[in-house]
Amino acid sequence: MGAGHDHGTQVLRAAERHRGRLWATFALLAAYMVVEAAAALAIGSLALLSDAGHMFTDVLGIGMALAAITAGRRRRDDPQRTFGLYRLEVLAALANAVLLFGVAIYVLVEAVRRFGEPPEVRSTPMLVVAVGGLLVNLVAFGLLRRGAEESINLRGAYLEVLGDLLGSAGVIAAAAVIAVTDWWWADPVVAVGIGLFILPRTWRLGRAALRILVQAAPEHLDVPAVQARLCAVRGVTDVHDLHVWTLTSGMEVASAHLTVSSGSEVGTVLAEARTALRDDFHIEHATLQVEPGAPPDDACGPQSW
């Protein structure tokens, strides 16, 4: 698979480099999730329970990321999987988004129900647990920050931890308000805020994963511009059947048919076309089919654009 395979291996290794940080984050969040959920049930805080539920999706999402990395390491040389198991990362990110959406909807529905008659909540233990959650999320945030730049799955976990960080701050604020004013509505109000904060981030993560799964062109790439650039390669008279998609985080793939003029050196055309895709669009893996022959009526040229 050439350069594309090398780049895909680099993507996988980039995730592997953060494996230790993922395990540390997983253990830390899993332990505190149990503490937070138990405390939420004991004191009756919906805001704290929503934060614990969000933390649960963090734990599950990071667990799926670790599973995807492990599977990718074990199966990338399997000849029956010509693209390895890179898509497991994307599937994990999509599953994570679905879980987050479910948590957000539950929190919003339960919060609306509580607005009618908000239960009393013990503010002191609520505040103590929320402060602990804030500290735990700060540590997790630091552990995942670098990896979020290299992997969609790690980015999903990172965004969830960021959401938890803000959620913990909201729970602290609610506990303080209840302690000072006995305004019990602060608990469901903060729960609604956390739920509404989760939803748009969930949408963006799910949309990014779905774009990859349906093999849509990357949003940052202008496909007509890619076609025009290939048309500008010396000897190319037409470009058709052009497809550009993302295999996994940071690995764009392209395929195209290039019609070349008679007398053109095929090897030179291919080399220049691959160089153009790599240098101008960061597409490392391209499958290009060269077809000698006369250009069709809608061939490359100023009149086509």
From TrEMBL:
Where is it located? Membrane
Q: Tell me where in this chain the Cation efflux protein cytoplasmic domain is found.
A: 218-292
**Which InterPro entries has this protein been placed in?**
Cation_efflux, Cation_efflux_CTD, Cation_efflux_CTD_sf, Cation_efflux_TM, Cation_efflux_TMD_sf, CDF/SLC30A
What is the recorded membrane topology of this protein? Multi-pass membrane protein
Q: So where does this one cross the membrane?
A: 22-49, 55-72, 84-106, 126-144, 156-178, 184-203
Q: Which Gene3D superfamilies match?
A: Cation efflux protein transmembrane domain
The main location class comes to membrane
Record-stated family: Belongs to the cation diffusion facilitator (CDF) transporter (TC 2.A.4) family. SLC30A subfamily.
NCBIfam families this protein is in?
CDF
Q: What is this protein called?
A: Cation diffusion facilitator family transporter
- Source organism per entry reads Micromonospora zhanjiangensis
